[in-house]
Design goal:
Largest sheet: none
Number of domains: 2
Strand content: under 5%
Distance between the termini: 60 Å
Number of strands: 0
Radius of gyration: 26 Å
Order of helices and strands: HHHHHH
Number of helices: 6
Oligomer: single chain
Helix content: 55-70%
């Protein structure tokens, strides 16, 4: 499909020349302990501030996600507060709401924590709709006299 339209489909990481370059660089440049993305930080010397180049961690910033979360926080808060989870004893709703408020502000540097919040909210939505889905899936059994 691509060729008739003048589009070339390639897989550059399967190119043996690129693999040889990567392996050659890896053999010649030994990373320093505690430094992440050694080659990138070396190439950006003089461009990025030293405090950024030499930091030991970087945050997970997703502006789109944080804005969406902040804009939906009242609805999400209501979902959490009304979720039927008390009998499961899985989570503390107040702690979850506090975590969501912090995430909406962009507080925190761990992207995995945001993923866990999304999974938890998905679970709460699923639980909240269980009764409705079960009612909708029950067949209407009517006795029709013959």
């Amino acid at each position: 499909m691509a060729a008739p339209r003048g589009i070339v489909r390639t897989h550059p990481f399967l190119d043996t020349r690129l693999r040889q370059l990567g392996l050659g660089i890896q053999a010649r440049l030994l990373p320093l302990a505690g430094r992440r993305k050694f080659m990138l930080t070396e190439w950006l010397q003089g461009i990025l501030p030293e405090s950024i180049r030499n930091r030991r961690w970087n945050g997970s910033f997703n502006e789109y996600c944080f804005r969406a979360l902040a804009g939906s926080l009242p609805r999400i808060d209501s979902l959490v507060r009304h979720a039927p989870v008390e009998h499961l004893r899985l989570l503390d709703k107040n702690v979850l709401v506090n975590c969501l408020e912090q995430a909406a502000l962009g507080i925190g540097r761990d992207g995995r924590a945001l993923d866990r919040l999304h999974l938890t909210l998905s679970f709460l939505i699923w639980l909240s709709h269980q009764d409705q889905w079960q009612r909708e899936s029950e067949p209407n059994s009517k006795i029709i006299p013959i």
